[in-house]
Design goal:
The protein is α+β, with helices and mostly antiparallel strands and 214 residues long. The protein contains 5 helices and 8 strands; from the N terminus they run ββαββββαββααα. The protein is elongated. The relative contact order is 0.19. Belongs to the CarB family.
Length: 214
């Protein structure tokens, strides 16, 4: 299980527990420190693949900027994990699940602009970890890897432009999107470090972009 205080952001104070005794100890400490705030208890997915998606939505159409597959398993903070764009081990059916879920989330919350969604895939079941209607830390890397200026496109969309209009202008690709990327296209990774494995909290902001060719 994953336990954390309800009032923190970015994974601070999180702990992974495997038995009842550890859970009791965590809740006791948390309630002593802040009795007015509840403790959130979530199921912790072990050995799940984490997936990051940056997308644009104009209120009608969704454009997938990029689908990134994390190297470390889900549970390592996304700011400390490495990932590949496009995904390496995800099949076409997995990518289609991610696309449909991202479109449903974008339309469901009424996004006009950028959207970042983090997923976990385990045993062919796709879980939504979080969805944020904003530019994520991965947007600059996705833009560099795909040669599509997502932030600029987002600004145009927020000012009233449509995705189809931006396709016609050449700002976005004319057909398809980043979800259809060549699996041998350049990839991007953030700095991994073995001591970060198992941590649910971020440990530092530095990021690295790496390129590779077949």
């Amino acid at each position: 299980m994953l336990v954390r205080p309800s009032y923190v952001l970015g994974g601070r104070g999180m702990e992974i527990v495997y038995d009842e005794e550890t859970l009791k100890g965590y809740i006791t400490r948390a309630t002593e420190l802040s009795p007015e705030h509840p403790v959130l208890v979530d199921r912790f997915l072990e050995d799940a693949v984490e997936i990051d998606v940056d997308a644009l939505c104009d209120g009608t159409e969704v454009y997938i900027g990029g689908i990134m597959e994390h190297i470390e398993e889900a549970g390592v903070h996304s700011g400390d994990s490495a990932c590949a764009l496009p995904p390496v081990t995800l099949g076409r059916s997995d990518i289609e699940k991610v696309r449909k879920a991202t479109e449903a989330i974008a339309h469901g919350i009424g996004v006009v602009g950028l959207l970042n969604v983090q997923y976990a895939l385990k045993d062919d079941v796709l879980y939504v970890l979080e969805a944020n209607p904003r530019a994520s830390r991965t947007v600059p890397f996705v833009s560099k890897a795909t040669a599509v200026p997502l932030a600029k496109a987002c600004a145009r969309i927020m000012l009233g432009a449509s995705i189809s209009q931006l396709r016609a202008e050449g700002m976005l690709v004319a057909s398809g999107d980043g979800g259809n990327a060549d699996p041998y296209a350049p990839s991007r990774s953030r700095k991994p470090c073995c001591r970060f494995i198992g941590s649910a909290a971020p440990t530092g902001p530095p990021s690295i972009r790496c390129w590779a060719r077949r």
